[in-house]
Amino acid sequence: MCTAALALYTGGKDSHYALLKALHAGIKVLGLVTVTPRRLDSWMFHTVNVYWTKLHSELLGCPQIMVGVSGVKEVEVYELYNELRKVVKDIGVDCLISGAVLSRYQKKRVDMLSKKLRLSHYAPLWGYDPLSLLREEVKTLGFIVTAIQAYGLRSYWLGRRLLPRDIGSIERLQKKYGINPVGEGGEFETLVITSPLFRGRGVCINKASILWYPHEWRGYYLVEDASICP
User: Taking the complete model, does pTM exceed 0.90, yes or no?
Assistant: First the structure.
């Protein structure tokens, strides 16, 4: 049973859509937990543009808990546990929300984290067909691609808002290169800029730069300035 929760929140489409699903299910969300790894190659957590989730917190009217971790595989999960156990005692929640879809690696670790905190794990996107989920997310949310880290994805995706017409391209990339359509394997990361939860407002990107490493099929859209806009 999940009635009052903390949401693991990256500002990307999956964590945001999971939050939306939780709220629609009547769950009271008492805080957003945003993890900030010190390494770009974290196995569990987003790294690109997580700073700007502070705008989401304001738009949602929901307090945010920022947790710094090393980004070292496995160690980062225990570091998060050590921080959250203090918070859970203070605010009184009974579950943890995540945007896990198909990654057993991620779900197993959030399951373990929740168990150690004596919370249930609410994962409303778990088991979704990735293409079907992407269609729902594109229809419901506005989000841009902020990182690509997979063979077959090119630099023109960076900073681009995914639209319904892009689904066919993503499906072809899935068939040709084995890319996960929702990017859960780290193939790409996103930042939500519009949502029904933002109550008619959104995130405006005022300044950004692109880093592209063509020989590594890797690149980042780095937001340098952003603000809340109508």
Answer: yes
